[in-house]
Amino acid sequence: MEMTKVPSYNEMIRQSIQEHWFMDSMSDYGLFTFQYKDVARIIEKLHILFEQAGIQSGDKIALCGRNLSRWGAAFFSVLTYGAVAVPVLHEFHPSQVHDIINHSESKLLFVGDKVWPNLNADEMPGLQGIISLADYSLLVSRSDKLTYARENLNRLFGEKFPNRFLPECLSYYHDQPDEMAVLNYTSGTTSNSKGVMIPYRALWSNCNFAYKVLGDEIKPGDKVLSMLPMAHMYGMAFEFTFEFMKGVHVNFLTKIASPTILMRALAEVKPRILIVVPLIIEKLVRKAVLPRIQDPKVRMLLNVPIIGDRIRKQICEGLTQALGGNFYELIVGGAAINQEIEQLLHDIGFRYCVGYGATECAPIITYNDWKDHEVGSCGRNVVHQELRIDSPDPEHIPGEILTRGLNVMLGYYKNEEATKAAIDADGWYHTGDLGVMNSRGNLFIKGRSKNMLLGANGQNIYPEEIEDKLAGMSLVGECLVVQKGDKLVGLVYPDQEQVKKLRLSRSDIESIMEQNRKDINPNLPAYAQLFNIKVMDVEFEKTPKKSIKRFLYQNIEL
């Protein structure tokens, strides 16, 4: 790969603030808005607090709370000071939060008001202070200087900028490409989470990728709706940091969005780009599109030339309007999308595409614009990144997906063994995912190598492929396929709405599942057929990315 000169990321933050000074930057949807100049002011005030708390460049500062404008402003204040941001998912269990704060050796913690009551400051002895994300007040201070600075912050800010606070006053820490910017703890679907060390070059590279593929479509003053957690690299890179650099107005849904709130926000904000996990779009399609298409009369008309096209266009228009009607494309990522749902989106001509990434690549690995999207694939290798399949025949035999380039992490924090296992001597990052790549360079994921099951005669079984079929069967809300000896079992949490609506008893549900099993097996190879289906009483436990925590169900009693 040619050597790319990586510019300073903090310099890009500074330029964006200066260029968009009087424009809207971030809003807590329905509550208040910060302009870029307000964010600049917060950054300076927080820098005063960091200085007084004795924070040095390279020290860690953690952020744990729902998406909020103050979370966003605090994040940029950490980077521009030269400290390392440690975003912690607010959905983590309090003991996990304590562990991450301690493992990362964070000196300060910004915390949301919903998270704070469940935490215990005594469990995090290394912190100098804990700052509220509701109003930046000090919740805990273990330093007199920090307490003094917070009590006198406006006066200290006035002394620092005695004339007026203007765009030309900004001066930020000058970062180096290989310096750690973010320490992001993975959700840990298969084991305990690891601290991924993300360098500035990876942040810049992801941002530069977004500029190249979306820069002409997304303009300063456009709006986006932030629905994914910013503590996750997918939401952070493509719903927040890229937009901030572009002068886009980010609207945070600060509460858990019920479908009604979400629809209202989409209609009001009219986002220019939509970044979603499959769960959101699948639910929408199942509620809004499938019932229409399954109507026998409509089904018949869909096969009539011209009329069929007109109906598909109407359905597509309805779905587009439900999502605000103004988006260039909807990008699905974070997990695999159900094939039936994807085929449907394709058939109606909906503007969607599927990307693929990993926290370790901050996050993007493959992507394709909706106009070039190939059904079932998750796009092609992105700029600043190489991609290869570790297989004797990458087009036909699945092999591990390997990638190398500017996006790749520095390694796992304080875990040399895991780093060596993930990044080989030639700099290739081993994703743990299996795929094939066609002659056009499109990547097709075949499952996680960690999830692969071995059939009785040594066949490779990818549970995701069975789950994809099972998910489309009647009454299946969520499902998982596990192996018991040499038999495969489907675990299903039924669709509760349907159960209530049809007033089904436990034995009704079980006989429907048995029918599902009989219907699905003829469509599966003999070695991948289901021995039985077990009905689950409670929803599956999930990671923040909404993937089921598989490892919890491997040894389930049947």
Give Rg in angstroms.
25 Å
Please estimate the helix content: 25-40%
* General shape: globular
Our measurement of the CA-to-CA distance between the termini, rounded to an integer number of angstroms, reads 51 Å
Main sheet: strand order: 4-3-5-6-7
CATH class of the largest domain: Alpha Beta
Percentage of residues in strands: 15-25%
Q: Which parts are unreliable, with pLDDT below 50 for 5 consecutive residues or more?
A: none
State the helix count. Answer: 17
User: Into how many domains do the coordinates divide?
Assistant: 3
Q: Using DSSP, what is the number of strands?
A: 27
Structural category: alpha/beta
Give a short account of the largest sheet. 5 strands, mixed
Task: Explain the overall architecture.
The model has no long low-confidence stretch (mean pLDDT 93). The protein has three domains: 9-199, Rossmann fold (3-Layer(aba) Sandwich); 274-326 and 329-448, ANL, N-terminal domain (Rossmann fold, 3-Layer(aba) Sandwich), CATH 3.40.50; 453-553, ANL, C-terminal domain (GMP Synthetase, Chain A, domain 3), CATH 3.30.300. Strand 13 (330-332), helix 13 and strand 14 (352-354) form a beta-alpha-beta unit. It is of the alpha/beta class and 558 residues long. It starts with 8 loop residues before the first helix and ends in a 23-residue tail after the last strand. Helix 2 (36-52) packs across helix 3, helix 2 (36-52) runs antiparallel to helix 5 and helix 2 crosses helix 6 (153-160). The protein is built from 17 helices and 27 strands.
